[in-house]
Amino acid sequence: MLNQQPNLDPVLQALADPTRRQIVERLGEGPKTVKQLAQPLPMSLAAVMQHLQVLERSGLVTSEKRGRSRVCDLDVARLDSLDEWIAARKRTWERRYDRLGEILETQTLETEIKEKGSA
Asked: Between 20 and 30 A from 27 (CA), which of 66, 79, 89, 109?
C-alpha cells in the first residue's frame, strides 16, 4: 500500500509555508494571474514567483501564458491525493481508538463482576 501512494513530500513541503497556503486558498476561488496573486501579499513579484515555482514543482499549481499574463490554477487532484492519505491515517487511528474503547469496556465489566463477586 505504501508503494502505491503518490509522493506527497513535495506537497507537504509546499504547504508548510503560510504564504504558499494563502496562494493555494486564493486559487481555490478560481484561476488567477500572477499579478492578482501578488497584489495582497507584502512581498515583491519576484518573491511571489519563487513561491509559485515551489507550488508548481509540487504539482499543486499549474500555470500557462495567456497573452501578456501568466495564469495560475490549482490542481485539485494533488489535494485529493493528500486528502486520501490523511483520511487513511484518520481511519487507522479511529480503529485503534475503537479497539481501545472495547478493551476498556471489557476491563470495566470484568472489574465490576469481580467486585460484585467479592462483596
From this structure: 89
